[in-house]
Amino acid sequence: MNDTAVALGDLDSSATRELVGNFRSSMQRIRGEVRKVIVGQDDVVEHLLITLLVGGHCLITGMPGTAKTMLVRTMANALGLTFKRIQFTPDLMPTDVTGTDIIEEDAHGHRTWSFVQGPLFTHVLLADEINRTPPKTQAALLEAMQEQSVTVRGNRHQLKPPFFVLATQNPIELEGTYPLPEAQLDRFLFNVVLDYLTADDELAVLQRFTTRVDIPPVEACTTGEDILKFQWLVRQVPISESVSRYAVDLVRGTRPGDPRATEAVKRYVKFGSSVRATMFLALAAKARALLEGRFHVTEDDMRALALPVLRHRVLTNYHAESDGQSVDDVLRSLLTKTA
User: How far apart are CA 165 and CA 188, in angstroms?
Assistant: First the structure.
């Protein structure tokens, strides 16, 4: 543990040991609280934890009825953070998300502008069915996601950290939807696919939620201040130059014009991942290492997180569609080559 203290930076060894111990116990308790409500989906829960520890945002893609909303609400409760939900619809306006200025009149008849905060002013924001609202409203999230602030009538309003956007989208209902622009997709750390449960897990859901009316209570395990400390701790995890080089080569391999690209990438990919993908992959790998009790990053961490980090940053062409090749298929061929 003393070596850990040295590796993790500027805190003295006792403070570092206390912070690392608090991190371990908190993550264990959070998982336990989430399991009171959510059955299975351990990989998705880990990805959401990594998102929070990195300070990023997560796009959750899943079929209806896969407990996307319940998962996010349960996670927010377990983290002890404030939670708000926006149901995105075609008639939703940007001010419905950010808030707006109103004119208030005092007892003496004096009128002043007053800002009324929108649902963006929270710690955890669930943007439900984000692809159902027009681009103008989707763009209202851009500044908040990148700058953690909103601008209304030329006035900038700062959001209180930590702030996370967890957005859901339905992959099968395309009519009446507005696909997210590439610039906004790139601001999501992960694109997590929430799949169907196994038969045993589905049976457990049946037994758990058809015998009671209420949802099991979830206790808060951390505070916003704790999350900010954990985010600092994640960034202190060392990563070797060789592993950093692996992350760079992996992301550059998604670009069809790069020498590292596989034949599948050259044939099926139109645009590859940005530099932001490299940074997010390294940060997510640091968080994964710390969650597993390690204080160094390995190439296995990179490979384990490559799909959710890269799948929404790689744009395939018409050859991929005609040959039935998905983005994940192309990325798996790249991972096989670099293994």
Answer: 9
Tokens of residue 143, six digits: 């500044």
Q: Do the Cβ atoms of 2 and 15 come closer than 8 Å?
A: no
Helix axes 327-338, 241-252, angle to 10 degrees: 140
Cβ-proximal residues to 130 (8 Å cutoff; 6+ apart), any chain: 59, 88, 138, 141, 167, 168, 169, 180
126: helix, coil or strand?
Answer: strand
The whole-angstrom separation of Cα 331 and Cα 207 is 38
Cα–Cα dist 77/94, whole Å: 27
Q: Which two tokens stand for residue 286?
A: 């640091």
Q: Judge whether 290 lies within some domain.
A: yes
pLDDT attached to residue 142: 80
Distance separating alpha carbons of residues 230 and 177, to the nearest angstrom = 37
Residue in the block written with tokens 């640091």: 286
The answer to whether residues 144 and 98 touch, using CB atoms and an 8 Å cutoff, is yes
Pairing of strands 149-152, 99-105: unpaired
133 within 8 A of 167, measured Cβ to Cβ = no
Give the tens place of pLDDT for each residue, 131-181: 888 888 888 888 888 888 888 887 888 888 899 999 888 776 666 678 887
Q: Specify the CATH number for the domain of residue 290.
A: 1.10.8.80
**CB contact set of 315 (below 8 Å; sequence gap of 6+):** 182, 269, 270, 271
Q: pTM (2 decimals)?
A: 0.86
In a domain, 296, yes or no: yes
